[in-house]
Amino acid sequence: MPTAMRMFTLSIILAVAQIxxxxxxxxxxxxxxxxxxxxxxxxxxxxxxxxxxxxERVHLDTNGATVACLRLDDKIRWCYEHxxxxxxxxxxxxxxxxxxxxxxxxxxFHYVDDLDLDGSIDIGxxxxxxxxxxxxxxxxxxxxxxxxxxxxxxxxxxQKLYDEGxxxxxxxxxx
Length: 175
What we know:
Elements: H1 2-39, E1 55-60, E2 65-71, E3 76-83, E4 92-99, E5 108-114, E6 123-132, E7 135-145, H2 155-172
Antiparallel strand pairs: 1-2, 2-3, 3-4, 4-5, 5-6, 6-7
Helix pairs in contact: 1-2
């Protein structure tokens, strides 16, 4: 009996350790993406139409924000914005997923924000362009805000988008 109890206790400890490791790895991945965004260089020469680099552009803002965008194909662009803490503003990572062709009716634009860099999203939004082709109008069709419990039914979708964005950045940013 004591051996069975020890095995049970050991299995519980291992399960808890695995859960703790998963959370820490997510935080670590978020910090790795932030470091990539800050360290990646602009593709050179700039504005070359036939550049085969995945990284499309990098912009360092004077207000402490760094933006890097990459394009995997001719359909989707991923943009990563690391916004540094200034005054009472929290440090955050924003990931945007937008269509490459630009502002066309029917296109969907997504963004998610991680305000505390813990690996789980705090804000998410999806905007759909509607109206006439010559004058598209953006309409927010989904919105999630964790602190207010608003849009909780969309939380899993936005978390999936965030996790996918992290993996894409770790794989392609800087190439």
